[in-house]
């Protein structure tokens, strides 16, 4: 039985510090000595508490045997990881070699400050490792100003969850467009009192990531050439659509403070026909112990808007090399091994989605996922956008600003006015940040 992807939130929240040095399987040496496959040296690897880490950690002896490189592993909770990076990277440390990081949260800050080594030449030099095999959305996010600064590890995209029984009773096909989604939500909610046609995140900041797919599919974006663009006609239409679905066909007296646990619970309790959210949350809906609709659950790729289907397809975690490290050759040897086809396949077989296209095309790589979900994820990857929030340094503040029109739409307010206000605030924010 594979491990549930949704466990990652609980693992990370626990924040348990575990630092250990794994025994070498070959003669070691100083941190800067030796090289890949040449039987020498060590590499200091800092990883987050995560299911991916648990799986890859068990395989590190294989890496040590293959390369003769001894791995010194530090494993930290997310908050502790951030604290260590803030202190050590600001001080220009050479004590970190490989760093597990969140491309969408601290990626721009780290790249802008020169904390991450340029991997552009390294990723291109090994045809067998094959950089072109990585999905375009995650690659976009681990690239900064044309330079590759990280390799994506764990991915997710936004899928459409639906109640197959309600669609069948209404004589409806699975929506493939946003227009069809709205029409189906209306039909089902009118025919089933007490059942919402649609549910999704509603909290100002939390909803931004899920709204992003709607924004892109309407032809909008948070920024255009580095400038705020949240009041364009396309953006306003997306805000009105997302807010309108929840206002008209959402749960009765819908809260404007729901993140994924609350929204997922409504769907899992059979109180909504459609739910859009991260693919990584599926076991909260698919397992009998978590859901009353586990046997009625359907999955589909994100529906197309006027600009097509453009869901986010993001790397939630990646690996980078500390620019200040004097041990970059061994660091790259570890990253290349940890993100090889064999390693990604082994991790994905345990239910943790990776970023390699070939692994998603391999039956072994999708065996632990419901077939329809695997198909939806693969379809999303074709046109996926590599970010689900504004790519800025102060992500939290930006999300609060651009999320305001979402809440206004949910409550039936003046969306164009809210978008105009958000444009002014976000524009000022970007000027200050730059």
Automatic annotation (TrEMBL):
The keyword Signal is annotated on this UniProt entry: yes
CDD domains: PBP2_TMBP_like
A Pfam family reported for this protein in Swiss-Prot or TrEMBL: SBP_bac_1
Signal peptide: 1-23
InterPro entries registered for this protein in UniProt: Bact_solute-bd_prot1, SBP
Keyword NAD in record: no
Superkingdom of the source species: Bacteria
Keywords: Signal
Name of the protein: Sugar ABC transporter substrate-binding protein
Organism: Microbacterium keratanolyticum
């Amino acid at each position: 039985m594979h491990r549930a992807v949704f466990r990652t939130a609980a693992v990370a929240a626990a924040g348990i510090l575990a630092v250990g040095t794994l025994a070498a399987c070959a003669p070691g040496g100083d941190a800067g000595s030796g090289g890949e496959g040449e039987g020498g040296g060590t590499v200091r690897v800092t990883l987050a508490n995560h299911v991916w880490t648990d799986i890859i950690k068990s395989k590190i002896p294989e890496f040590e045997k293959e390369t003769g490189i001894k791995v010194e592993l530090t494993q930290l909770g997310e908050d502790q990881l951030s604290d260590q990076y803030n202190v050590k990277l600001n001080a220009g440390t050479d004590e970190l070699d490989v760093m597990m990081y969140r491309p969408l949260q601290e990626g721009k800050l780290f790249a802008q400050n020169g904390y991450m080594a340029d991997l552009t030449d390294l990723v291109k030099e090994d045809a067998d490792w094959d950089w072109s095999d990585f999905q375009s959305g995650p690659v976009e996010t681990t690239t900064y100003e044309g330079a590759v600064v990280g390799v994506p590890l764990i991915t997710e995209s936004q899928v459409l969850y639906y109640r197959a029984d309600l669609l069948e009773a209404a004589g409806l096909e699975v929506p493939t467009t946003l227009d069809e989604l709205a029409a189906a939500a209306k039909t089902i909610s009118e025919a089933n009192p007490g059942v919402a046609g649609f549910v999704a995140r509603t909290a100002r900041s939390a909803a931004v990531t899920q709204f992003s797919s709607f924004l892109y599919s309407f032809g909008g974006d948070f920024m255009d050439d580095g400038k705020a663009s949240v009041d364009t006609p396309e953006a306003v239409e997306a805000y009105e659509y997302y807010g309108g679905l929840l206002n008209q066909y959402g749960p009765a007296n819908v809260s404007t403070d729901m993140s994924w646990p609350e929204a997922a619970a409504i769907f899992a309790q059979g109180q909504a026909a459609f739910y859009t959210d991260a693919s990584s949350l599926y076991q909260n809906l698919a397992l009998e112990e978590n859901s009353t609709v586990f046997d009625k659950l359907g999955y589909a790729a994100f529906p197309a808007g006027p600009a097509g289907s453009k869901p986010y397809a993001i790397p939630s975690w990646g690996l980078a090399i500390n620019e200040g490290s004097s041990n970059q050759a061994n660091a790259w040897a570890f990253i290349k091994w940890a993100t090889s086809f064999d390693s990604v396949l082994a991790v994905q077989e345990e239910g943790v989605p990776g970023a390699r296209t070939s692994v998603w095309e391999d039956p072994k790589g999708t065996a632990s996922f419901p077939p329809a979900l695997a198909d939806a994820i693969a379809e999303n990857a074709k046109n996926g956008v590599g970010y689900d929030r504004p790519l800025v340094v102060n992500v939290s503040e930006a999300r609060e600003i651009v999320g305001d029109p979402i809440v206004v739409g949910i409550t039936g307010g003046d969306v164009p006015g809210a978008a105009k206000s958000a444009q002014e605030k976000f524009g000022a924010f970007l000027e200050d940040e730059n």
